[in-house]
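ping. complex inputs:
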Amino acid sequence: DTVLTQSPALAVSPGERVSISCRASEGVNSYMHWYQQKPGQQPKLLIYKASNLASGVPARFSGSGSGTDFTLTIDPVEADDTATYFCQQSWNDPPTFGAGTKLELK
Amino acid sequence: EVQLVESGGGLVQPGRSLKLSCAASGFTYSNYVMAWVRQAPTKGLEWVASISTGGGNTYYRDSVKGRFTISRDNAKNTLYLQIDSLRSEDTATYYCAKDVYYEGYFDYWGQGVMVTVSS
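pong. complex structure:
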């Protein structure tokens, strides 16, 4: 299975820019997607196919990368962005998720 | 508005069976691949199974093959997951998710249903 490795928990101040990384153990083309999950809630799609903003998602969120290295950027970070962020690939079978990056606000 | 509402979870003894349901509304259900994704307590997300639009093709992660059966009823706009021979490692919140045109990512998720396997 394709293993997705995410950056560890991050703590940032509101108004700052934060980048969350995801590295795949093998190439996934551009089929990397990002989700936000707040405590007690279901995941929410933020970015699909590396850089496409999902419907209704603020433009503060953006995605980049291809192949094996991908980044989710939030700029500027707001208090409501406190959550765990998961990457997911769907290029190789089975679809796999990263372990998640917990974003905390200072 | 797209809605996915799961039901059927609970506390179950190891070795027993359970059937989860997911009622879909707000979109043309029969046009979309559907999936189940689970999340063990305080853990990450794990894809479990997917089913094609007509139900003729099903896909499973290796660890659940032979024990889990995904199915759908397009007349009732409902997705199912039959879980047999439950194990403690199946304890998780199970989410129903809508796939995006066979692209393998999920644009809508249900609120999840908890399955606890314990004696």
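The radius of gyration of chain B is 13 Å.
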